[in-house]
Amino acid sequence: MGSRIRQSLVIVLIHFWPAIAQNDDFVYLRAMKDSWENTPLNWDNVDGSDPCGGWEGITCTDDRITAITLASMGLTGPLISDIGRLTELQILDLSYNKGLAGSLTTAIGNLKKLTNLILVDCGFSGTLPDTLGNLENLVYLSLNSNGFSGLIPPSIGNIKKLYWLDLADNNLTGRIPVSNGRTTSGLDMLINAKHFHFGRNRLTGVIPARLFSANMTLIHLLFESNQLTGTIPTTVGLVKSLQTVRLDRNLLTGNVPLNINNLTDVVEMFMSHNQLTGPLPNLTGMNALNYLDLSNNTFDQSEVPSWFSTLQSLTTLKMFSTNLVGELPAALFSIPQLQQVDLSYNRVNGTLDLGSNHSNKLQSVNLQNNQISDFLQRRQYSIRLTLDDNPICSDSGVEDGFCSPLPPTNTYYVTPSNNCVPTTCTSGLVSTPNCGCAYPYTGDLIFRAPSFPDAGNSTFYESLHDSLITYFQMSKLQVDSVSLMNPTRNLEDYLVINLQVFPSGEERFNRSGIIGLGFSFSNQTFKPPREYGTYFFIGEPYDFLLVGPSGTRTKSSKIGVIVGSAVGGCVFVVLLVLAGMYAFCQKERETQESSPFALWDATSGSVGVPQPKGVKPFSFEELSKYTNNFSETNNIGTGGYGMVYRGSLPNGQLIAIKRATQGSTQGRLEFKTEIELLSRVHHKNLVSLVGFCFDQGEQMLVYEYIVNGTVKDSLSGRSGIRLDWMRRLGIALGAAKGLQYLHDLADPPIIHRDVKTNNILLDEELVAKVADFGISKSLGDANRTHVTTQVKGTMGYMDPEYYMTEQLTQKSDVFSFGVVLLELITARNPIEKGKYIVKEVKQILNKSKDLYDLREVLDPTIGLISELKGFERFVDVALRCVEETGSQRPTMSDVVKEIEYIMELAGLNHDDELASNSTGKGYEHPYSTNDSLCAYNADHFPSNLG
User: Fold this and answer.
1) What domain of life (predicted)?
2) Which end of the chain, N or C, is surrounded by fewer C-beta atoms within 10 Å?
3) Which residues does 174 contact at the CB level (< 8 Å), separation at least 6?
4) Mapping DSSP to helix (H, G, I), strand (E, B) and coil, where does residue 18 land?
5) Mean pLDDT per segment of 10 residues, for the chain of length 946 residues?
């Protein structure tokens, strides 16, 4: 409401303002101001036609605008084509303004003097214009964390001076453009570039061999989490300046190039989660290497390489599931900087000997699921070691501590107070490390390739803290203190640290202070310690700006005094009117808060007002605060309903928020359905509804946050969680119990109607939870057997009887669950390459043979054939569930009993209902070095809630 009052006042002032001569830059700047909301307050008060007369965030040279820096100002609106008329502009930084949206205007190419174009974490979308290639003086191009789509413009290759190219965290598709050597442009022409940051897009095709050459000076090559295919080109080995290489989480195949060890300056190398084959690469000579991850590839079976122990700078060695065999040399553990080793799920055998002089920095060794038969214990070890699922652990004489999965590492960290007693602050103020009270500027520092493994070691954060303080002091930014909190590692091995920066001498920053802080991070002016590697920052809007004499730089003039006197009376009248409007709106707001569905209007047709039971109504402002203003880093996926965001309540509880978008496939009926159903059902195998929001035109559902994403993600390999046979049995039982509760214990009974692996989530212990009740149906009373309704669901999982008759029954859920069971053993989509999983299994099944002769369709990661106890009975249950008619299918209660029996055959205690191994021990994520499972993000939560 305050924004509308301010806008109305501006209109009044403009109406009475005398005509004044204007230079061109003023005209274009004023046009941009008129297209934006939430511009700095003093933009409405500066002197007349002078674009350099005190506009905050505007820098001039010789009366021409040369820089616009407005990071974290809360701006909303488009970037209009008038920006292209500011022909002297050298720096444009609009980062951390999520409200800036629409496409990037082609007029941007007119800014021939531009050196820095920085639009980090805005709301821009659409394709990148080819005119970017006209920016011949551009040195720094950072467009990461937006919604840009389409192809990377080949014309970017024309920017010969380009040093930094960051297009990460968008929706870019297609191939990486390269030139043909004669007429076309391409990224191979950027021989002066140091940074290629393209991670977390949807790029496809092969990595072109032409992209790399010996005269390139790249130091960062970041292609992680795309859909790149083909082999790694041998030309990568020509770029000897490289220091960080991330090719992980793609679809790369073939051998790692033999010349990869030419990259002797590489400090971090990530090639995990691909489909690489052939021999393990020989990395002898890569003496600078700190961090190596080749996990989850299908290399040829090979002996433990001797070059392991030659990498004397190594801090982290991750070779999970890489077909290693043989005995580990004790010399490996004496590497002086070594902190973490993960060689789990291989065939390492013989006797484990950590040596008498292993590294004093060694923290964890994960050798789970190997073939180690003996352990030479020279002394009592303080390291975190697991030999779980090795032959040695069948020997009762082995120390129990080594035969348990690694427990989570405590990652809790907050910068301690600076030798003072913390102050209790009020009214939203936060206690500073220097024990004062202030409103901090906050955001997330996200490091894409840190070279140290342990996110719980306070020493690392102390060095980062000290470097931040030193930088702010040298930059003369008015910073009192800095707090670092909650370091977490996500499954892409990014390190995420929450940052709070506190003002010096005041409780609040002024706009100039916020602009300076934002630019420090968006322009990469702040350089972290070397071990942190490359980073980006996601800043939050700052709602506590200092205004007045110390916060606004206004320029006095006689014209202002005269006009102020002339229009004062008019403005006073307008203020009275607007104050009345504000009071009316405030009353309306209070009415809405007392009844969260007060605005549920007649447009909903026959959909009555929801009647939730015991769940909390949230305001839009609350959920915006809990998600850092729905920041990109908290965006954890997309569904038919809209976007899904991670958030944190004031009590620390993590939540997942489904935010509806206009035109979503779920409408008001689905919103009402999910609120009412989930607010009255409570079971440990169902996702819990925490609350909802129906405010400011928004429809949002708030759930408990389920950290390990969907079963689909784990089966496909996207999550990095390996589901062996025992864990799949536990997941099947948990999901079955959730559906059994809906069918038998809910009053009235509920039919889910969209049972699939994308709607079964896994918590931190891999307990299965059924989710997404947007199209569920209630039977109305316990005696009804079906509901006649329009057919909805997901093809491949849908009951054919329901599809033909439009009669929805509980047996429809049973059919869908049967498809899920088949998916659990095959890891195949229900419909894949035109083949239907139910039909394919039935065609090749032969009950007279071992495992029903289904080896060819089994998921190879399910475990050894000899360990699939109860497999045939499991298949029998699945096939009974997918019988053509509902009368031939079991009830969910029958299914639960049968899976419980199968678990007993396999040696599991079904009462625990955990997806654990036969020892009944808890679950540890195979890639976790800490408690970072609670930070499971973005790409691995796309379908969990819609």
Assistant:
1) Eukaryota
2) N
3) 150, 151, 152, 203, 204, 205
4) coil
5) 44 38 72 86 60 80 90 92 93 94 94 96 95 96 95 96 96 95 86 96 96 95 96 96 96 96 95 95 94 94 90 93 94 91 94 87 91 81 86 71 74 80 84 92 92 69 88 89 88 88 91 90 90 90 65 34 39 49 48 48 48 71 86 75 82 82 56 73 86 81 86 85 90 95 86 92 90 79 66 87 87 95 94 87 91 90 84 95 92 94 79 40 29 28 30
CA–CA gap between residue 226 and residue 245 (Å, rounded) = 14
Residue 475 in contact with residue 516, Cβ under 8 Å?
Answer: yes
Q: Which of 533, 557, 367, 521 is nearest to 452 (CA)?
A: 533
- How far apart (Å, rounded) are the C-alpha atoms in residues 859 and 7? 61
What's at 697, amino acid-wise?
A: G
Using alpha carbons, select from 652, 648, 691 the residue that is nearest to residue 671. Answer: 691
User: Distance (Å, rounded) from C-alpha 269 to C-alpha 291?
Assistant: 6
CATH of 602-704, one of 1.10.10.10, 3.30.200.20, 3.40.1080.10, 3.10.20.90: 3.30.200.20
Q: Which two tokens stand for residue 690?
A: 């925490």
> Which H/E stretch holds residue 800?
helix 800-805
Residue 754 known to be catalytic: yes
State how far the alpha carbon of 107 is from the alpha carbons of 100, 127, 241, 444, in Å.
Answer: 16, 14, 35, 32
Q: Which of 166, 353, 480, 754 is catalytic?
A: 754
Three-class SS state of 37: strand
Supply the DSSP symbol for 30.
Answer: H
Strands 371-376 and 768-770: unpaired
> 711-934 falls under which CATH superfamily?
Transferase(Phosphotransferase) domain 1 (1.10.510.10)
Number of other residues whose CB lies within 10 A of the CB of residue 303: 10
Closest CA to 814 of 831, 805, 826, 802: 802
